[in-house]
Inverse folding.
């Protein structure tokens, strides 16, 4: 493992806002950009899944005008492909709908009406919670023919392809690539990334590993780089 200094600009947390309300969508995007966050706004629900797959986001905020049944179905589909925090805005307080949203995998529910200032504060609180690794002082990490770039939050594979990573994907690879070949236990990884143990974090870790393998392995069903051991994982660079 080698670490090399890199002077590239630091990448800010990226927020994916899914909102089909023409009067609200630009407001949410504007106030988050005012905080220095990278914001991608998607106003068509049917495009959100494909848009997600083309980017590396750190948090998702969903504010959509549709039936509750369709909203829950959308949330379930989104949670299947996403390991980052998802915040849902609901048009009114209905306890049964809120509980159903949490059961679908939502991390936080925000009941409207809500002021732009409170929305901004909610998002920033979740960004601070999920953005647990400060990347300002981190250097390029090299493990074999693979390079991890903290400033661009990406991994460079041997053919030169640059693969964007979510914050959780980056944190896991950074830990493993600092000691290639070393088997980190599940508990060690969770403690390093989340600072606590819990069944939800254990499931989340498995989802992060699954997503990473789809990104970096030639055959995700037979992983060579990100290997599973009896009690944890290792990176074989």
């Amino acid at each position: 493992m080698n670490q090399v200094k890199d002077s590239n600009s630091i990448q800010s947390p990226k927020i994916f806002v899914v909102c089909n309300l023409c009067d609200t969508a630009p407001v949410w995007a504007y106030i988050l950009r005012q905080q220095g966050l990278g914001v991608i706004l998607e106003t068509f629900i049917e495009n959100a899944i494909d848009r997600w797959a083309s980017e590396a986001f750190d948090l998702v905020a969903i504010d959509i005008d549709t039936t509750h049944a369709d909203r829950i179905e959308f949330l379930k589909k989104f949670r299947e492909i996403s390991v980052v925090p998802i915040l849902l805005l609901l048009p009114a307080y209905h306890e049964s709908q809120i509980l159903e949203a949490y059961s679908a995998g939502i991390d936080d529910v925000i009941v409207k009406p809500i002021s732009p200032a409170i929305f901004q504060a909610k998002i920033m609180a979740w960004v601070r919670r999920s953005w647990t690794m400060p990347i300002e002082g981190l250097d390029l990490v090299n493990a074999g023919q693979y390079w991890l770039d903290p400033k661009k939050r990406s991994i460079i594979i041997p053919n030169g392809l640059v693969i964007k990573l979510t914050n959780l994907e980056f944190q896991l690879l950074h830990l493993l690539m600092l000691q290639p070949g070393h088997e980190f236990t599940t508990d060690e990884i969770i403690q390093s990334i989340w600072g606590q143990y819990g069944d939800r974090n254990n499931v989340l870790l498995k989802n992060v590993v699954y997503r990473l393998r789809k990104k970096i392995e030639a055959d995700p069903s037979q992983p060579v780089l990100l290997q599973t051991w009896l009690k944890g994982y290792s990176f074989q660079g």
